[in-house]
Design a protein that fits this description.
Urease, subunit C, domain 1; TIM Barrel; alpha/beta
Length: 496
């Protein structure tokens, strides 16, 4: 049989390995790449059968002349746990060329969770109480399989969720041995059901009281499953270096793959510390598996918290549960409006969200360029006025940082967003353009690719992402989602 699903011809292939580009053609059949061949070939072999190229027929042919054809990007740091159900087109991601998301970051995940009491920050970032309806990872997985999105999803288990349940909401202290044992059992079950690892959010109230030893004992559970440990560290400001060392120690003692989430140097007094933090990481990498993710912006976004406000040069408050009609405004304007101090504004609005301008361009460039760095958007889809990284992260890396600033080659940029990410997180047959791999593919106009989302208008789709395929199905074309919900639930290395 000579009939196949799709031919992408005449494209410039950047395959996700970091190697130099080359001209070639790609044949997709169903959900896989079955052949990558040169135009001067007369015949190819597919599934051990020889085919004359002139006799091949395709349901769809795409001419990618003058375009870059690359693996679909993997957003390694997201909070799309609920968004995949609320907006299964996932336009905010496929419009960037993203075909796979890692959810459950910063210690918070929709599953496993079964707790009726009030929940501390940052758990509300995932949504209102009614979205927390998955007592087990298997429940979350089943819901996704019944209603898949346009992208693939892999789930980390949030440490804060385990803590709140095991400690019955009494999280302002260290867990005792019995509570740690409960958390370990919950994590083990989550990993058996398809979670790819454990995440922590040690900077937040839900987990800040957890000592290093508690995290080590939980991380040890990962080893049997080759699970990954990711962490929003305890401190990204004055105690940044101590927090990096704590992370290194956890990963080394537990013997697990470790990723530092959204690495940054927060607060003007800490600018330049990336030189020392990256040196620490580079040294540790010689003895253990340690990497990091980052986003290409000097402003962060999360809950409105006093300690975060204190170290920021500028703060935009984006939403509030208490003041429903709140418009996006500088916190200094709100102090005048409400005639009170900054701390009193936080108390008045909390729970609330904010964008914090607190980082330096030189640190950001250094972290982006670092050999162990991957790209994660860390966007908050539930925000009424989200950070522009939700819609712009990946084209911004391609356009601003690779093409315009020449911080790294396009080949290296794509490697950081595909092959490096799939290898680190153990996503089998993803992240590369290779025969036998899943057909997660993005076609890019490299001369025009750029982010358009801004702090003022954060929902604008990027330019230059021409077509996107998830598992062989076209999900984005002509700046529009096609509503092909072809995403799959991705499980960890031990399941592959």
């Amino acid at each position: 049989m000579n009939n196949f699903s799709i031919l992408i011809k005449n494209g410039t292939i950047i395959d996700g390995t970091g190697k130099k580009r080359y001209l070639s053609n790609i044949i997709i059949d169903e959900d896989k790449i079955v052949s990558i061949y040169n135009s001067n070939q007369e015949a190819i072999v597919i599934n051990n059968k020889k085919h004359l190229i002139k006799n091949l027929k395709f349901n769809k042919e795409i001419d990618a002349k003058s375009m870059v054809v690359a693996p679909g990007f993997i957003d390694v740091h997201t909070h799309d746990d609920q968004n995949i159900f609320d907006d299964p087109t996932m336009s905010c991601k496929i419009s960037q060329g993203v075909t796979s998301c890692i959810v459950g970051n910063c210690g918070i995940s929709l599953a496993p969770f079964n707790f009726s009491g009030d929940v501390p920050a940052p758990i509300p970032l995932l949504g209102e109480k009614e979205v927390f309806k998955y007592p087990k990872v298997s429940d979350y997985k089943s819901a996704f399989l019944k209603k898949p999105s346009s992208i693939n999803v892999a789930l980390l288990t949030g440490h804060s969720m385990l803590r709140v349940q095991a400690m019955n909401g009494d999280i302002s202290r260290s867990a005792n041995n019995d509570e740690i044992n409960v958390m370990q059992k919950m994590l083990d079950e989550a990993l058996r059901e398809g979670s790819i690892g454990l995440s922590t959010g040690l900077a937040y109230p839900a987990a800040s009281a957890a000592p290093t030893e508690e995290i080590i004992e939980l991380a040890k559970v990962l080893k049997a499953y080759d699970g990954i440990f990711t962490t929003h560290m305890r401190n990204e400001g004055d105690d940044l270096l101590k927090s990096v060392q704590e992370t290194i120690d956890i990963g080394k003692i537990a013997g697990v793959r470790t990723v530092i989430s959204h690495h940054k140097c927060a607060g003007r007094t800490n600018w330049g510390k990336s030189i020392k933090s990256l040196n620490l990481i580079e040294k540790a990498k010689k003895e253990q598996y340690l990497d990091l993710d980052c986003y290409p912006y000097t402003a962060s976004s999360t809950m409105l918290l006093k300690n975060f406000v204190a170290r920021a040069d500028k703060v935009l408050v984006t939403w509030s549960d208490k003041v429903k009609d709140l418009k996006v405004n500088d916190i200094n304007y709100l102090t005048k409006k409400f005639n009170c101090s900054v701390d009193e504004v936080v108390d008045k609005l909390y729970p609330a969200g904010a964008i914090y301008f607190q980082m330096d361009d030189e640190d950001l460039n250094r972290i982006l360029k670092f050999s162990g760095s991957m790209i994660g958007s860390d966007g908050l889809p539930g925000d009424k006025h989200p950070h522009p990284r939700l819609w712009g992260t990946f084209p911004r890396v391609l356009g601003k940082y690779s093409r315009d600033m020449k911080l790294f080659s396009l080949e290296e940029a794509i490697f950081k967003m595909s092959g490096k990410s799939s290898s680190t997180f153990g996503l089998k047959k993803r992240g590369l353009l290779k025969e036998g791999y899943f057909a997660d593919i993005v076609i890019i106009d490299e001369n025009n690719v750029i982010d358009n989302a801004t702090y003022e208008e954060p929902l604008l789709p990027s330019s230059g992402i021409e077509k996107v395929f998830t598992n062989g199905k076209l999900v984005w074309e002509n700046l529009t989602a096609t509503e092909n919900f072809s995403g799959k639930f991705l499980e960890g290395k031990s399941f592959n």
